[in-house]
Design a protein that fits this description.
By secondary structure, the protein is α/β, with parallel strands linked by helices. Helix 2 runs parallel beside helix 3. The longest helix is centred in the N-terminal third of the chain and has 47 residues. The termini are far apart. Bound molecules: uridine-5'-diphosphate (UDP) and manganese (II) ion.
C-alpha cells in the first residue's frame, strides 16, 4: 500500500512542479505588463497636459490632422498666416506645426499663434544661405524639423494624419474631410500648378498608376519610417516630395482622394510680391504698426 503511494507520488510530483513553475511565470508576466501599462498611462497623462490638448488620443477618436507650414519673414507673411488660420480654425481635431525659416521664433509669429486660438507647435530652423537661391527646393529644413518633432512627441498610440501646407496656398475645407481617412499615404489633384490648370495623379480602377501631387501621410507611417526626410542632395528640383514618398510607400499603394482624384480641393496660389516703393525711407509715423 505504502509502495503504491510512493510510486504514484513520484509520477505526479514532476507534473505538480511543472504546473507551479508555469503559474509563477505567468504571474510575473502580468506584473511586468501592468507595470508597463502604469508607465504608459502616466506618459499619456503627461502628454495630454501639453498645450496641444490631445484629448482622447486613441485610435477610436477622429485622427488629428497635423498641418506642417514652413514660413519666412516678408511683407505678406502675416496676411498669409491670417488667411491660413481662418481656414484651419474651422477644422476639428487640428494641430498646426508652424516652422519659421529663422534662427529665432519671431515675435510676430509668436504673437500671431498665441492669438490664433489654434492648437499649435512653433518651431524654427534657418535655411543655410547657400540654399537660398532660385531653382533650389524651399523649406526642406523646416519640413524635416516638423517631422522630427512628430517623431519625438508622438507615439504609436496617437492617431493622426500629416500633411504639408505651404503658407501661400488655398485649402478647401473638404480637403480635410478627405485626408482624415488616410490609412498610409493619400494623394489628390492640385490646382494652378506646374504651368497648368491642375495636376493630378492618374487613377485606374481606384488605384494610382501615374504621377501625384498633393499628399497626406498617416502619422504611424511617419513614425514607422524614422529616416524618411526631405533631401537636398540627390533630389532634383521639384522632385523632393515624390522622393520623400518613395521612402515610405509604393505608387500602387497610394490612396486616391477627392473623388478618385477628379476634384481640385487645393490651389497652388502664389502671392504677388508687394510693391513697397512708396514706403517712407525714415519712419514718420508716431506709432509702431505691425503689418
Ligand atoms: N519658404 C521658406 N523659406 C524661404 C522660401 C519659402 O520657409 O526662403 C516657405 C514658404 O513660406 C512656403 C514654402 O516654403 O510655405 C514654399 O515656398 P514658396 O511658396 O515660395 O514656393 P513655391 O512652391 O510656391 O514656389
Ligand atoms: Mn507657394
Amino acid at each position: 500500500m505504502k509502495s503504491l503511494f510512493y510510486s504514484r507520488l513520484f509520477i505526479l510530483l514532476p507534473w505538480v512542479l511543472i504546473v507551479i513553475i508555469m503559474i509563477d511565470i505567468d504571474t510575473k508576466r502580468t506584473s511586468v505588463r501592468s507595470t508597463a501599462h502604469f508607465y504608459l498611462s502616466r506618459l499619456g497623462n503627461a502628454q495630454r497636459q501639453d498645450r496641444t490638448s490631445r484629448a482622447g488620443s486613441n485610435r477610436t477618436a477622429l485622427p488629428v490632422i497635423y498641418a506642417i507650414t514652413p514660413t519666412y519673414s516678408r511683407a505678406v507673411q502675416k496676411a498669409e498666416l491670417t488667411r491660413l488660420s481662418n481656414t484651419f480654425r474651422q477644422v476639428q481635431r487640428f494641430h498646426w506645426i508652424v516652422v519659421e525659416d529663422s534662427n529665432i521664433r519671431t515675435e510676430l509669429v509668436s504673437r500671431f499663434l498665441a492669438h490664433s486660438g489654434l492648437p499649435h507647435t512653433h518651431l524654427h530652423v534657418l535655411t543655410p544661405r547657400r540654399y537660398k537661391r532660385s531653382g533650389m527646393p524651399r523649406a526642406t529644413e523646416q519640413r524635416n524639423a516638423a517631422l522630427g518633432w512628430l517623431r519625438m512627441h508622438r507615439t504609436p498610440r496617437d492617431s493622426g494624419v500629416v500633411f504639408f501646407a505651404d503658407d501661400d496656398n488655398t485649402y478647401s475645407l473638404e480637403l480635410f474631410d478627405e485626408m482624415r481617412s488616410t490609412r498610409q499615404v493619400s494623394v489628390w489633384p492640385v490646382g494652378l500648378v506646374g504651368g497648368r490648370r491642375y495636376e493630378r495623379p492618374l487613377v485606374e480602377k481606384g488605384r494610382v498608376v501615374g504621377w501625384y501631387t498633393g499628399f497626406a501621410v498617416n502619422l504611424q507611417v511617419v513614425l514607422a519610417n524614422p529616416k524618411a526626410l526631405f533631401k537636398r542632395r540627390g533630389s532634383q528640383p521639384g522632385m523632393q516630395e515624390s522622393d520623400f514618398l518613395k521612402q515610405i510607400t509604393k505608387v500602387e499603394d497610394l490612396e486616391p482622394k477627392a473623388h478618385n482624384c477628379t476634384r481640385v480641393l487645393v490651389w497652388h496660389t502664389r502671392t504677388e510680391k508687394v510693391n513697397l516703393g512708396n514706403e517712407p525711407k525714415h519712419r514718420q509715423d508716431t506709432v509702431v504698426i505691425e503689418v
